[in-house]
Amino acid sequence: MFGKGFKLFTLFGFEVKIDLSWLILAILITWSLASGVFPSYFKNFSAATYWWMGVAGAIGLFFSIIFHELSHSLVARSYGIPMRGITLFIFGGVAEMTDEPKNAKSELLMAIAGPIASIIIGGVFLLIYQIGEGGSWSKPFLGVLVYLGFINLILAAFNLIPAFPLDGGRVLRSILWAWKKNLRWATRVASRIGSGFGILLIILGVLSFINGDIIGGVWWFLIGLFLRGASNQSYQAMIMRKELEGEPIRRFMKKDPVTISSSLNIDQLVEDYIYKFHYKIFPIVDDSSLKGCIHVRQVKDITRAERHEHTVGEFAEKCTSDNTIDVNADAVQALAVMRQSGNSRLMVVDHGKLVGIIALKDLLEFLSMKVDLNND
Question: Is 141 within a domain?
């Protein structure tokens, strides 16, 4: 859906990250508020005042989205749903789950928490606006307050549309799930509705563009594309997790992985291993124990003339949770590590010893065959 993002801070144990695409949204919001929205409703302010109002409005929206997603995350955690963190990107924000809810009730409560939070914070902004208007507060400040009040209510209303994976779509899925006791069927139905709504927004965008609303048309078109893609992707991700759940890593791992010793010089590493196997990372094993690993990017910093003068052990890095997984884990856990780290191969370890390598392509081939055989 988006890249790994940059960590901003940790809030209540959840890592809050920002995708670079959010900067595009922040600029567009600031510009539209400063040049269009605020001048239309609040007259006779200076250009500088409108721009400061635009910046304040964008910052307020930033924290409003975090509040919305944090509400999802807190409720999810209380019901044991694993959450990776919160990421802000061009279409808003998302609380990233690493697994499906355990039951329909937890899905419903988690989904509804975000819109309720937006309604509450929107009401608070409007209440403060009413107090400030009676107290003759600064009009630019009041303008920002009323904008944040209404934008949060709009955010809640849009998210309650029953189009998966929007919050309303998750509410719909929870109801269907509780009715049929079948998460896969409920997800398929909710995803199709979400995809259909995405197509509707795409059509709306095209019509708006034709009628002269170029910026609005482009945004509706892009949101429609995103929603359609996200609904389909969410369904596929659920299928993937369910089909791989409980499958032991031992079933997929290669038990005779390519390893190197710490005494190997860099020139041999390049000629005999990197060029031959085309792997980006190699495990370093001495006396049957995993001593570390070396990545291709480390070799780039060594000149050709110096490669024979250095050994692998000099550049060994400690193996981390991003490139290793315990032998007793299941395939879903391996897939989650690969997705989060971006690594397509993981070293399988058992009490500090390397026992195999698991590759993404092997998981996907197994998944493809299993889905074909169990297609419903």
Answer: yes
